[in-house]
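Field log, afternoon session.

UNIT: design team B
ACTIVITY: writing a sequence onto a fixed backbone
BACKBONE:
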């Protein structure tokens, strides 16, 4: 099961139903998510609790939340493939995403890392505009190859390690 801890702002924007986090699953299957404004659009950042691997979804709208599980899985697969991770390892992880639940955020460290990543995105986005031609996978790759001081490592390396690569 994948658990996504959402900020209050994200719960207000989406139609997610908040559940209690009773899972004692590995932090590797838990993510945090937040919505932010940039380039006059609502955008979403989703970050893995254990590795701080993240991806940004630009121009998110209400209808995207109706099929959020599929959007999450597709975006995760696309980003991991862009990192050169073998499909067998991706499928192994995604198989755990058969169920998804949404909880309140609980880890201030992850929230801080998300805030830092949004700030980095603000700096990097100029190289990827205009929005219609943006290669979001390249931007996400660049973000994930930025060191996370708290973990003393890079999110892309930690994700590969956690996937057994």
């Amino acid at each position: 099961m994948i658990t996504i801890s959402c900020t209050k702002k994200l719960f207000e924007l989406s139609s997610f139903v908040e559940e209690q986090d009773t899972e004692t699953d590995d932090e590797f299957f838990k993510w945090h998510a937040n919505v932010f404004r940039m380039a006059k659009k609502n955008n979403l950042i989703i970050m893995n609790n254990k590795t701080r691997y993240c991806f940004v979804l630009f121009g998110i709208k209400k209808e995207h939340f109706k099929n959020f599980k599929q959007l999450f899985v597709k975006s995760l697969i696309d980003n991991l493939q862009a990192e050169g991770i073998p499909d067998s390892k991706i499928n192994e992880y995604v198989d755990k995403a058969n169920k998804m639940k949404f909880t309140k955020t609980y880890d201030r460290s992850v929230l801080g890392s998300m805030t830092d990543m949004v700030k980095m995105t603000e700096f990097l986005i100029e190289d990827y505009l205009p929005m219609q031609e943006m290669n979001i996978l390249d931007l996400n790759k660049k973000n994930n190859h930025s060191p996370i001081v708290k973990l003393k490592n890079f999110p892309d390396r930690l994700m590969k390690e956690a996937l057994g690569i």
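LOG NOTE: The first helix runs from residue 8 to 13.
NEXT ACTIVITY: expression trials, pending approval
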